[in-house]
Design goal:
about 500 residues; alpha/beta; Rossmann fold; Arc Repressor Mutant, subunit A; 3 domains; five-stranded parallel beta sheet; 12 strands; globular
Length: about 500
C-alpha cells in the first residue's frame, strides 16, 4: 500500500472533480491524502508539509488554473526537493485538457518527467488505471502522448498595443516577459540596465521581498545583455539540490558544469578538479583559464537568482568571498573586465556575512525594489483599461499597499470580469477569495516555524519585532516593513488575514 498525495487547484473545474474521483478510486488500495480530509481547526499548513514528506507519490493535476496556483507550485517544489534528498515522493504529473508548454519553475521540476493526459470525463477511468499501474512500478503514457505537446514551442508574444479583450491581459503570474505591456518600469530599473554599459565590468545586486519583480528585472537584464551581444548564463539556486548545498565538493563541481552548459562551452570540470587546490581556487581557475579564455573578446553576464539559498550552506562565506574576489579582480584588468555579475536576493545578506569586506552584495550597483507608489498603481490601472475609479483605486492601494503582484492580480481579475471590485474587497481575506492562494501559501511555507509566526504576531499587535534576525526573515519573505523605528505589516491585507489565523 503506497502513500499518495494529490495536489490540485481547489474549487475549480475540472480539477476538483478529477481529484475527487482519483481519491475515491485510489483510497480503496492505498493511503491517499487530499486536503478535503483536513478537519476544521487543524493546522493545515503543517499537515500538508508532513503529508508530502511521508508520501511515496505526489499526483499533481496540471490545468490552465493550477499551473498558476502558488499552493500547487509550492507543493510540487516541496516534493521535488524531498525526492532529491530522500528518494521520494515520486511526482506523477497529469495534464487536465492543458497542452501549453509549462512555464518556469514548473518546467524545471516537471519537464524531465513522464506524464498522463486527461481531456474529458470519459478519460477518467483510463487515467485511474494508468495511475494505478504507475504506482505499482509502471510508467505513465508520457512520451507517445507527449508528442501532442511541444514543450519547446515559443510562447505567443504579448501584444504591445492594448485592446479591450480579456485575452490581451496576459497572466499576472510568474516572471513577466520582457515585452509585456503590464511591466511597470521603475527609474531604478534603467539604472540597472545602464550599468551593463560599463566596459570594465559590473556587479549588480537586485534586492527586495518576494514577488517584487526581481526575477522579471533580472530577465530584462538578460535580454538587454543579449541585445548588446553579451554571452549570458542563468543559474537559479532554487533548483540546486539540498545535498549539493551541504557538500562543497558536489556544489562547486556542479556550479562549474552549469556554467559550461549555460555558456555552451565544453565541460572540463573533471580535468580541472584533478589539480590539488581548494574548491574556490578550482572554480576561479575554471572561470579564468577555461570559460573566459574560450569566450573571447566579448562581455559575459552571469545572472544568479534566489542566491539566498546559499545563506543556509556551511560554506556560504567561501562562496560569497569568491564572488567578491571576482569583482575585485576587475581592477587587475585582463579577462576579468569582461565578467559581469548580477545577483538576486530576497533576504538581507548582512545577517549571514560577518565580514562585509568579503560580501559581493555591497559593491557595484545595488538595486533595491520597493512597492508601487499610488501613481504607479494608477498607471497599471490605465494599462488594464481603467477598470477602477479613482476612489476604488485608492481603496485598493490602502488594502495592498502597492504590492506589485497582488495589485496586478487584482486589476487582472477585475478587468477580465472574473470578479467585481465589491466582491474582491469583501472576500479579500477569505481562503477562497481572490488572494486566498497567495495567503495560504504563506501559511504553508511558515509551517511549524513558531518563532517566525510569533514574530509576525508581535508586529501586528505591537508594531515592533524584538528579534532582529526574525525581522530580517519576515522582511525577506515580504510580510513586514520598517518605517522609522516601527515594524509594520507590509499591507493591511496581511495584517487582517494573519491577525486572524496565527495565534500569538
Amino acid at each position: 500500500m503506497a502513500r499518495i498525495f494529490i495536489s490540485y487547484k481547489r474549487n475549480i473545474e475540472p480539477d476538483t472533480p478529477v481529484a475527487t474521483a482519483l481519491y475515491e478510486a485510489l483510497r480503496q488500495e492505498h493511503d491517499v491524502f487530499i486536503d478535503t480530509t483536513i478537519q476544521v481547526g487543524e493546522k493545515w499548513a503543517e499537515i500538508i508539509q508532513q503529508a508530502i514528506k511521508e508520501s511515496d507519490y505526489l499526483i499533481c493535476l496540471l490545468s490552465g488554473s493550477s499551473v498558476h496556483s502558488e499552493m500547487v507550485i509550492a507543493e510540487i517544489e516541496t516534493a521535488y526537493h524531498q525526492d532529491k534528498e530522500h528518494g521520494k515522493p515520486y511526482i506523477l504529473p497529469v495534464r487536465l485538457n492543458y497542452n501549453e508548454p509549462l512555464s518556469y519553475p514548473l518546467s524545471a521540476y516537471l519537464n524531465p518527467l513522464q506524464w498522463a493526459l486527461w481531456d474529458n470525463n470519459f478519460d477518467t477511468p483510463r487515467l485511474i488505471t494508468e495511475l494505478k499501474e504507475a504506482i505499482l512500478g509502471g510508467q505513465l503514457s508520457a512520451n507517445d502522448a507527449a508528442k501532442t505537446i511541444d514543450e519547446t514551442a515559443q510562447k505567443e508574444e504579448i501584444p504591445t498595443a492594448f485592446a479591450n479583450m480579456p485575452h490581451d491581459l496576459g497572466s499576472p503570474e510568474g516572471t513577466m516577459p520582457h515585452q509585456s505591456p503590464f511591466y511597470i518600469e521603475r527609474e531604478i530599473d534603467q539604472e540597472a540596465v545602464n550599468a551593463l554599459n560599463d566596459i570594465q565590468g559590473v556587479t549588480i545586486t537586485i534586492k527586495g521581498p518576494r514577488q517584487m519583480g526581481k526575477s522579471s528585472l533580472l530577465n530584462r537584464l538578460l535580454v538587454e545583455a543579449k541585445a548588446m551581444d553579451m554571452r549570458t548564463a542563468f543559474i537559479d539556486f532554487q533548483l540546486i539540490e539540498n545535498a549539493a548545498m551541504e557538500n562543497g565538493d558536489i556544489f562547486y563541481k556542479q556550479f562549474c558544469s552549469l556554467l559550461s552548459w549555460e555558456f555552451e562551452i565544453e565541460d572540463r570540470t573533471e580535468e580541472f578538479w584533478k589539480i590539488p587546490l581548494g574548491h574556490v581556487q578550482k572554480t576561479t581557475n575554471y572561470l579564468q583559464r577555461h570559460l573566459l579564455k574560450e569566450i573571447e573578446n566579448v562581455q559575459i553576464l552571469l545572472a544568479m537568482d534566489e542566491v539566498e539559498r546559499m545563506f543556509a550552506s556551511p560554506f556560504r562565506s567561501d562562496f560569497f568571498s569568491m564572488l567578491r574576489s571576482w569583482h575585485n579582480n576587475r581592477a587587475r584588468g585582463g579577462v576579468w573586465t569582461r565578467l559581469n555579475l548580477s545577483l538576486v536576493t530576497s533576504t538581507e545578506p548582512y545577517q549571514f556575512i560577518a565580514d562585509l569586506n568579503q560580501s559581493p552584495f555591497n559593491v557595484g550597483q545595488v538595486i533595491e525594489l520597493v512597492d508601487f507608489t499610488l501613481g504607479q498603481v494608477s498607471d497599471l490601472n490605465h494599462r488594464h483599461h481603467d477598470p477602477l475609479t479613482d476612489v476604488q483605486l485608492r481603496q485598493l492601494y490602502d488594502l495592498l499597499g502597492g504590492h506589485p503582484y497582488l495589485t496586478r492580480r487584482a486589476l487582472y481579475l477585475i478587468a477580465s470580469r472574473r470578479t467585481t471590485f465589491t466582491e474582491m474587497i469583501g472576500n479579500a481575506c477569505e481562503d477562497n477569495g481572490p488572494f486566498g492562494d497567495h495567503l495560504r501559501n504563506y501559511l504553508f511555507r511558515m509551517g511549524n516555524q513558531e518563532k517566525l509566526k510569533a514574530g509576525l504576531v508581535q508586529v501586528i499587535k505591537n508594531q515592533r519585532c524584538s528579534d532582529e534576525h526574525i525581522f530580517f526573515q519576515l522582511r525577506g519573505s515580504g510580510l513586514v516593513k520598517r518605517i522609522g523605528n516601527a515594524v509594520m505589516p507590509r499591507n493591511q491585507l496581511y495584517a487582517d488575514y494573519f491577525g486572524k489565523r496565527i495565534n500569538g
